[in-house]
Write a structure and sequence with these properties.
alpha/beta
């Protein structure tokens, strides 16, 4: 254990040195500006990296033996690696997060699936989900989530972290950052095909299912607030910078964070092919009571929302809208205007092709920058969902360089 402590303290000190650089506050200011809809320039973020393809010179090789220490080590090594090779607009914070021992019992549905993995790329997996819901009576399987906080385990984690990192960086107990999608779990419980057919063949069951999940999430949020185990002061919200002047809300108590003090993100990726009316009926309608609880909302992921902006605009406290690689960017920018951040998701496949085409990447980023300039949209470039870079990590480093040249 002393060997692990020595390794971690050396890594933590390197992270602390980076966190103390003035550029961290400069980057926070830039994120606050764009999140306040008064950007100084477009912002760039890279997340959801295929770390299994990134290891150069053993910089990501773990050397600790204790499983808990290895978790800290992996976090530190990834921070240091990203800061060296593709920092773009990342912010390195001057504290170490120690996650509270919060358990969510979930909705009580086990996953029934078939999976396929590629050797050496176990983090990237194909899934075929089995349908478990065929009638409204099957909804009895869905339980209300319960939040359990093991306070003794949280204290133990803090005590161990204090021994590991004493004198290097402050520690911060980190609460639960809720993931709230009605249709992501349904697509797993029924399969996407089964759920889409359900919308047509048995709308009563699908309405009742959506309502049951939304009510379960509302109960879960009540429990998180009551137990004081919500996160607060987020640095990221779904792969994008979350620093904002309007958060936390007035009356904030760090011992009892509220949903109104933080961001949430929503998505209904399964609804990429449904009509705007059906999107409104089944997603916006049931998620609205959840959206209304939060200080700010970032909506969307891979779902193309260029044709659904009238419905997305109904979301209270909406601040950012995802524009995936499959949108009509011109139409999306028209729908967003100056009212929200155009959160552009460049196509990660550009880094996976057999031939790496820098001209194609540069053209893509310059085009979206010009479109957003014409429509007055605050713009951020969020590269995510990187399953592979064809085992050439330098591709990602080059993408970061091109992106920063584009926004500067």
């Amino acid at each position: 254990m002393n060997k692990d402590r020595t390794i971690l303290r050396e890594l933590a000190q390197r992270v602390a040195d980076i966190a103390s650089l003035p550029v961290q506050e400069e980057k926070k200011k830039l994120w606050r500006s764009i999140n306040g809809l008064k950007p100084e320039r477009p912002m760039v973020c890279i997340d959801q990296v295929c770390w299994n393809e990134m290891n150069v010179e053993d910089k990501l090789t773990l050397r600790c033996e204790d499983p808990e220490c290895r978790q800290y080590e992996e976090r530190f090594r990834q921070i240091l690696y990203q800061w060296e090779y593709f920092p773009v607009d990342m912010v390195v914070e001057p504290f170490i997060k120690v996650y509270k021992a919060v358990k969510n019992t979930g909705f009580g549905i086990s996953i029934q699936e078939q999976t396929i993995t590629t050797p050496g790329k176990e983090a990237v997996m194909s899934h075929k989900y089995e349908n478990q819901f065929f009638s409204i009576e099957d909804l009895e399987k869905i339980k209300t989530p319960r939040i359990i906080h093991d306070e003794a385990e949280t204290r133990r984690r803090m005590e161990k972290a204090a021994w590991l990192f004493d004198g290097i960086m402050p520690l911060r107990e980190e609460g639960h950052d809720p993931y709230l999608s009605v249709w992501d779990p349904i697509s797993i419980w029924m399969g996407v095909e089964g759920a889409l057919y359900g919308l047509i063949d048995d709308p009563d069951m699908m309405h009742a299912m959506a309502k049951k999940l939304a009510d379960g999430y509302l109960s879960m949020l009540d429990q998180l607030e009551e137990k004081g185990v919500l996160c607060h002061s987020q640095a990221l919200i779904h792969c994008t910078g979350a620093f904002a002047d309007v958060l936390p809300s007035p009356g904030f108590n760090p011992q009892k964070p509220r949903t109104q003090d933080i961001w949430m993100f929503g998505l209904a990726q399964m609804f990429s092919t449904v009509s705007p009316a059906m999107f409104d009926e089944y997603e916006i309608n049931y998620m609205m009571p959840i959206f209304e609880r939060f200080g700010l909302v970032y909506y969307g992921c891979c779902d193309p929302l260029d044709g659904k902006m009238n419905e997305v605009r109904k979301i209270k406290n909406l601040r950012k809208v995802s524009m995936s690689p499959w949108v009509n960017r011109e139409k999306g920018a028209e729908g967003i205007g100056k009212d929200f951040v155009f959160s552009y998701k460049p196509n990660p496949a550009y880094l996976a092709f057999v031939k790496y085409d820098e001209d194609l990447i540069r053209k893509d980023l310059l085009e979206v920058k010009e479109i957003c300039r014409r429509h007055g949209c605050p713009l951020e470039l969020i590269l995510k969902d990187l399953s592979t870079v064809n085992n050439e990590p330098q591709r990602l480093w080059k993408w970061a360089k091109i992106a920063m040249e584009t926004v500067d």
